[in-house]
Specification:
Structural class: alpha+beta
CATH architecture: Sandwich
Bound molecules: 2-oxoglutaric acid
Largest sheet: 8 strands, antiparallel
Shape: globular
Length: about 300
């Protein structure tokens, strides 16, 4: 669907001005959008999962650990695919209030793609280098977007997510390194052209929402504070965006599932070519592990 068609449907929660802002600048920020009831439910499950991760010595498909993680000093980078780990996460990601936001920005027919909870632990939680998302999971069009929920208050010290407004209309970068291996981040040579001085750092109180388009340049710095920065992320797309078969990560439930409206009758193609990532069906490691150049699983 083109933005004009999406905008012609009555919005569920956003104002028309907010939707137009998203299409023009590629992002949105909503303060305290998610209330305490949802946050309490999500935290109960998250605390349980953090406790489960303590005994692990190495990362697995669910828990992505910093190299210095121990039982006494757990250091989780990411909980992968929370939507398939617990009914509370499933309800939030597939039927919760953020699905209304997705509908307002991708149209009435909404597909789910994936979810993750980036913990960015206190005292040095790792950076996410500048990248765009669509090269990780190309679709036939550029409707996919990611909605983030800050599960705690986030300020400048904590490595908030930074975006470059308008970069969703710019170049789609090569995320392979000079040696031809997937790096999942912009090459140093490209950084000077990426207008990083225009970065907007998305912060806010607990319950605040970030939304960024799949072509948006974004990243975040190390968390140098004494507080964690859990950011719960969900990606959605228009139902008319078809995913490339070999970019589907094996074992991830619900990817490509229609969660609102109907399956598309017509597939929408945007004309601009997209980078082809490695064949994820042969194995996938998290963006953190790839960017920090840790050995593949
Ligand atoms: O956690 C962040 O700050 C950024 C997340 C992100 O870009 C990613 O996980 O792809």
């Amino acid at each position: 669907m083109k933005p004009e068609q999406i905008l012609s449907h009555a919005p569920k929660v956003l104002s028309q001005e907010q939707r137009e802002f998203y299409f023009q600048h590629g992002y949105l920020q909503l303060e305290s959008f998610i209330g305490p009831d949802w946050l309490d439910r999500l935290w109960t499950v998250t605390d349980r999962l953090i406790a489960e991760s303590r005994s692990l010595g190495t990362s697995n498909k669910v828990f992505d650990l910093e190299p210095n993680h121990t039982a006494d000093n757990p250091r989780l980078r990411r909980i992968s695919q929370p939507v398939q780990l617990d009914p509370v996460f499933e309800e939030f990601g597939l039927r919760g209030p953020i699905v209304d936001l997705a509908e307002d920005l991708v149209g009435p027919d909404v597909k789910f793609h994936h979810s993750k909870l980036n913990m960015k632990w206190s005292g040095g939680g790792e950076e996410v280098k500048w990248h765009q998302d669509i090269q990780f999971w190309p679709h036939t069009n550029y409707s996919p977007l990611t909605i983030g929920l800050y599960m705690d208050d986030v300020d400048d010290e904590m490595g908030p997510m930074g975006i470059i407004p308008g970069s969703h209309k710019g170049k789609i970068y090569d995320l392979y390194g000079k040696d031809g291996n997937w790096v999942g981040a912009l090459d140093d040579d490209d950084l000077p052209r990426a207008s990083l001085d225009k970065a907007v750092w998305l912060k806010g109180p607990r319950g605040s929402i970030t939304i960024h388009n799949c072509r948006m340049l974004h990243g975040s710095m190390i968390n140098s504070s004494t507080r964690g920065r859990p950011l719960l992320l969900h990606t959605y797309a228009s139902a008319d965006a078809m995913i490339m078969a070999d970019s589907v990560v094996t074992g991830v439930k619900h990817t490509d599932r229609i969660i609102r409206g109907q399956r598309a009758k017509w597939i929408h193609f945007d004309t601009e070519p997209c980078l082809n990532p490695p064949d994820w069906s042969k194995g996938y490691t998290s963006i953190f592990a790839v960017q920090q150049e840790e050995a593949a699983e």
